[in-house]
Amino acid sequence: MKRVLILLAAVLMALPVWAVELGDDGLHKPDWLRDTFKDLREDLAEANSEGKRLMILIEQRGCIYCERMHRDVFPLPVIDSYIRENFFVVQIDLYGASELTDFDGQVLSQRDAARKWGMMFTPSILFMPEEVEEGQTAAQAAVAVMPGAFEAGTTLDLLTWVNEKRYALESEEDFQRYHARMIRERTVDLGD
């Protein structure tokens, strides 16, 4: 019995641990998150100056699906590096009282912004274009929305689809068709 316990302990210690620190707000804080003043117009300008896409990640304290994304999906090297290289990520608390400034200039709490945008699920991700028309909100301007937790393959495909601006192409390949093609062509199982 002692040998079994030692073997089990050795196996558990060998498993990867994707511990992501929690902030004072109870949200996961991977080091690729940007700490900004939450003026989305300024965040978009900074993302553009770095040649990256603005990604608004909406989460809440105690969200088991947020935890799963931070434990099982975001830390995968292929996804982690893709986010770091291509996205400027700003985190919003679904129930946060801290203020943000929406693209339309309205200053409101993160909680009120999430309501205004119709966000009900966490995690949710809004992917922004390089330019937002005057008067638009983040939800109106978003080129894509990820409503909830996705598996690694779907997440990677959505990140790629947005980053490559496939939403703006004149082809018949919407995200679902693109994702189905990527599943067929993928040489590594990402648990689509």
TrEMBL record:
Residues 47-136 form the Thioredoxin-like fold domain. Residues 1-19 form the signal peptide. The keyword Signal applies. Pfam families: Thioredoxin_2 (PF13098). Gene3D superfamilies: Glutaredoxin. Keywords: Signal. This is Thioredoxin-like fold domain-containing protein. It comes from Roseovarius litorisediminis.
